[in-house]
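Service request form, structural biology core

Requester: graduate student, group of Dr. S.
Request type: structure prediction, single chain
Budget code: on file
Notes: please return the result as structure tokens.

Sequence provided:
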Amino acid sequence: MAESTVSKQHAGRRFTRWLLEERIEEVQGPEAREGEEKHAWWQVVCLTGVDYFSTLGYIPGIAVAAAGALSPIATLLIVGLTLFGMLPMYRVVAAESPHGQGSIAMLERLLSFWKGKLFVLSLLGFVATSWVITITVSASDATAHVVENPFWPEALRDQRVLITLVLLAVLGGIFLKGFREAIGIAVAVVGAYLLVNIVVVAAGFYEIATQPQVLADWQSALFREHGSTLGMIGVALLVFPRLALGLSGFETGVSMMPLVRGDADDDPARPEGRVRNTRKMLMAAALIMCFYLLTTSIVTTLLIPQSEFGPDGEAQGRALAYLAHEQFGNVFGTIYDISTITILWFAGASAMAGLLNVVPRYLPRYGMSPEWGRAVRPLVLVYTAISMIVTVIFAADVGSQAGAYATGVLAMMTSAAFAVALTAWRGGRTLGTVFFGVITAVFVYALASNVYQRPDGITIALFFIGAIIAISLVSRIQRSTELRQERIDVDEKARGFIEEAAKSGEIHLVAHRRRTGTEEEYARKEREQREDNHIPREEQILFLEIQVEDASEFLDVLEVRGVEVGEHRVLRCVSSVVPNAIAAFLLHLRDTTGKTPHCYFGWTEGNPIVYLIRYILFGEGDTAPVTHEVLREAEPNPERRPAIHVGGR
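Core staff response, request fulfilled:
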């Protein structure tokens, strides 16, 4: 029985180690290493492409349904925006956030304190909306293609939710095993999908070339429906927001920058090789997508009767699949269906990778998720569970999720455009500011139009935002008494103060909040503490001062510098929180000097609830009891715990 218990404990520890071994870490200096495996840029194109290119499954049909004969012209607007707007914009984003944070990191740097954190949390809500719905809507659409295939058993056609849940479970399993497997599958899936599509496109253009009347009928329909060139442009601009999903791959591509292999001598803080290769990745993805967007729009518009795009039409939601069956018969059509089903299902992989690369770089650093929030595998389990819940709520219906998907994607694009425009403005680049300002205006229009037409999308996005903020604040409060210093750096002068104090006996520190910084202020404080706490005159005293810089930060590096004010020796630090920084420094002194330090505080007067709120929001409050609590949690052995003394009149 005892051996069985020990065996179970070992198995549990092995499982825990496996679960937490893959981590997403922030780059803090030259010695830091990121946890992701690196791949050639063309391979990462395929991982982002399973999301980006999979939109070909429905974008041509959406374009025809929205614009009719004008579809190729409306699509040409998307192509122009892709090459001359989105591509230059995301080249800037790649350079400004080379570790995969995307445009969120750029906007974060422009705002500080809690307003910045709340703004980032709101953007993460839109990111979660976009990418979680990408996972669920792609799997749901794959299921729709499965059950609509003529070879699928009739008895299983009503099991859409179950089939979608199975697809999500398998996708999660791939990411539990590792990114290498996801990359390998993505290369095969994207290669096959682009190949079958080029066959359909080539056959379509051959049919148009051999039947000139098709082209003449299309031109007649254009002028019959819209009358003039200006009318065509006006209608194309009106339907643009419904086609903007064809731009969805850029933010996903930038979020996958940590997977892109750079140069061997890249600086971890500014990896120029990775930036250069990411730009190649974005260019390749944009050119491929523009080619397919335009060509598929032409062949579907010219060769498929308008009636087939209606609710009961055979091309509704599967325009290219319709052509594949019509041109080559059911054998090739089924092959095309299988390829489409596979890429739609695996489109969730790029969204999953984006979530894994972006969210862990913010919430754990803000203290707004458990520390295991940096580990890849627990996050995969969480995201998979959320995706399954969303699928059940929406009954695996693609149309019900489309509004939320569009809202999330357009919100991310709008924030990216604004971030790049603001960066250009702050850099004094007038032309760039105007250019990217126009791009921002385009996406503001698209987002506003989508929210107006599909208000359910913003409702779902607001739910994600509210959930993230609520969970984040609860986590922040629960983790408030953790040691929050990643490391402690002590300058040479401060180290000399500490070594001299340790040689003379016990280390005595007085926690002090500097006001005027005069010698008289320190003399008065020393006199009060010696009297109140009975510190002998022969014992040397060091003053410890913690200045709060940005209380909204959670983790920081505590830098300690020594300062002399007359005869008084002061250790000055900057941190996001006072009690936790003091506790971390006391433990550092204990471990480096072998002495148990004593720290002295004065009593505070006031409402303890107010002090608690001040501590959570502003990093300071009733310092002595909170410092003691942080030490108690960090060091369970009272005999090894630094001593806290509180005195006063």
